[in-house]
# Entry
Amino acid sequence: MSSSLGVLLVVAAGALNGTYALPLKGTKRWAWENTWLVYSAVGMVIAGWAVALVTVPHVTTVYADAGLAVIGMVFLFGMLWGVANFLFGLAIDMLGISLALPLAIGLSLALGSLLTLAAKDPAAILSAGEVFCEYGLNLCRMLQPATTIVLGYSNGVVTYLPTAKAIRDGGYEPNAFCWWRLPGPFTEEAEAQVLEAAAALAKPK
# Structure
């Protein structure tokens, strides 16, 4: 995926997320619960399953491999999120979109970040490079159940730290080292070497 397409998708997602509640202003003859029911059924069930079935290969196998414990946790926190979403809809009905949206999103982002840190004593893996997100995801899997935070741009900026797939695909990021006058390029083995070294540092002694 090109960087320009990624930016466009982020902009589109932000615009849709910021305006999805606008139809509430045009359904004044409906109780807000009716509008919220249609939104929930279409947006969270019909559209969600349609996108998953079209874009995720063997989606039923993915759920089967996850196991009942993981799926149970997803259902539990999904129900809690559903309660929060219901209260959010009620807040929009009582306060209006312009007041409810910034309050709800701001609080959820702030509390979600802080409560995650408070849940466990996290291990922090820091890199001066611009780290591909796959490094963080893979490290979290390798270090489970420990809480791990991966941070790029720490104590400087050197270059991108690409994955093996990104190196094979080519493009700007795997070759950006030359702009920083660094030796290179990275080899495909670099990803495994970085993950193994980071995991060794993060594990408790």
